């Protein structure tokens, strides 16, 4: 290091350089810490084996018209309902502007006799009733969530209660007329 | 205060190198304490006692607990039936959580009544709120571990709260779960964090006591210690008083552990978790009920913010608001003893929290105390409103408008006067 005595004006460039170095070092330190933390944060995301179980095939042959079943997909239930003519009509008759989360029935089904939705209430995640025969299906003939009183219609759309959204439609493909792969 | 001189050679040798003995001596022996503390000042040390109890019983429970969805429920039942004294250790732990909240809630109400949050005790107050938040997180995760129906569905409902946040909501919930629903990864991480949190709380308690000892204890008059006449050393006066309180408290605690161990819990948690069936009525543990009532009472939209998000924000706000009350309260007088108007509002607030608790326990469409026409949801909304009005309107206004009673010149004077009147 130089031992020269600087006049006060001469300090300026030196201090600027020092400020820059401090800032740059701090920035590298912060970014570096962030990068080092990321693996830990990401380790809490779904792991590969969890992701690998992300699809399931269902045989529809045994589900009679008017019947509905629950299948497990990604640890949560999926409702598959074989809708009757009347239920399909009900779902199509309602005016879109009457809906909380407006969505046409066509946009929610691939084949209109099969309604496939994730059976998790969009409010706080309870499982609505109405799949098993004899269970309360709410005021709109679909499902009724007992936790805080959400009513879903025959298209799984939210009609009344605290839930903000329609029952989610999972991605699915019909492999044949009587079998479907969810996920 | 100068460091004490130690006669014992070993003590002195250690203390010269690490003054931990002097520190303990300062804080648990000669700590000058206001001489007029009432029994309301027992609950801090009681809460500390319960924390230690929880950590100890927890460590022994872990020796027999298995954090896996297929074995958790049965391992808890095995603790109850087969492990020697397992039932006792688990019942202490289970009821200990409730006892912890009882102590801490009384401790907080005490602070609110006597203005213990006011300058210079703001930091002390903040650390206390952080302890409350950490306790809530710990209790919630602990309740999930037995993997009963309420464990599972409580976890589902509460973690789903975070889905209310726009955009980040869903990925955040997936991240919390480590999957697409509450499942084994969720149970594992809750177990890990449930073991960690009590030590975080312990650290916060150390800071809390540190802050306390630097600003000194508040007291029923709210007047600071001015002369040595106002205080007495912590030991033996308050060690004995705390111990006596502990004895009474332990009778209460043991009454639950031995005679009504499941009274405070929900019977559905003795049904193994079933992801396909939601219990008809999900209720949180009693200590969360007021907050749950606030969450549920928001069933309307304001400015396009959906009800679900508003409810979540209101629930968080109900605790976060405590951080700013040192500034919301405009009164120069600490203790409500000398605040003839605010005192009534304080008790109204206490009643309000009980009403909220009641509403949280009932279904929204039930009738409040069976009163026809008065729905629980409406009563919940009114009490939620008062909860916030109390802090945001009553505190600032009453502090400004009220004529307080004259304060005693000192703690000592108030004690002598009360003695003369007795
Ligand atoms: S979870 Fe379904 S209504 Fe709240």
TrEMBL record, chain A:
Q: Where in the cell is it found?
A: Cell membrane
Its Enzyme Commission number(s) read 7.1.1.8
Keyword Iron appears in the UniProt entry? yes
State the Pfam families in the record: Rieske, UCR_Fe-S_N
Spell out the InterPro entries in the cross-references: Rieske_2Fe-2S, Rieske_2Fe-2S_sf, Rieske_Fe-S_prot, Rieske_Fe-S_prot_C, TAT_signal, TAT_signal_bac_arc, Ubiq_cytC_Rdtase_Fe-S_su_TAT, Ubiquinol_cyt_c_Rdtase_Fe-S-su
**Entry's Gene Ontology molecular function annotations:** 2 iron, 2 sulfur cluster binding; metal ion binding; quinol-cytochrome-c reductase activity
Q: What class of enzyme is it?
A: translocase
Cofactor note text: Binds 1 [2Fe-2S] cluster per subunit.
Q: Catalysed reaction(s)?
A: a quinol + 2 Fe(III)-[cytochrome c](out) = a quinone + 2 Fe(II)-[cytochrome c](out) + 2 H(+)(out)
| Keyword Lipid metabolism appears in the UniProt entry | no
Its biological function? Component of the ubiquinol-cytochrome c reductase complex (complex III or cytochrome b-c1 complex), which is a respiratory chain that generates an electrochemical potential coupled to ATP synthesis.
Name of the molecule in the record: Ubiquinol-cytochrome c reductase iron-sulfur subunit
Automatic annotation (TrEMBL), chain B:
Q: Where does heme b b562 bind?
A: 93, 194
- How does the cofactor bind to this protein, according to its record? Binds 2 heme groups non-covalently.
Q: Which cofactor does it need?
A: heme; heme b
Query: Could you tell me which Gene3D superfamilies the record lists for this protein?
Result: Cytochrome Bc1 Complex, Chain C
The record, for SUPFAM superfamilies, names: a domain/subunit of cytochrome bc1 complex (Ubiquinol-cytochrome c reductase) (SSF81648), Transmembrane di-heme cytochromes (SSF81342)
Q: Name one GO molecular function term.
A: quinol-cytochrome-c reductase activity
Q: Where is the Cytochrome b/b6 C-terminal region profile domain?
A: 224-409
Give membrane topology per the record.
Multi-pass membrane protein
Summarize the protein's role: Component of the ubiquinol-cytochrome c reductase complex (complex III or cytochrome b-c1 complex), which is a respiratory chain that generates an electrochemical potential coupled to ATP synthesis.
What is the recorded name of this protein? Cytochrome b
Q: Which organism is it from?
A: Thalassospira profundimaris
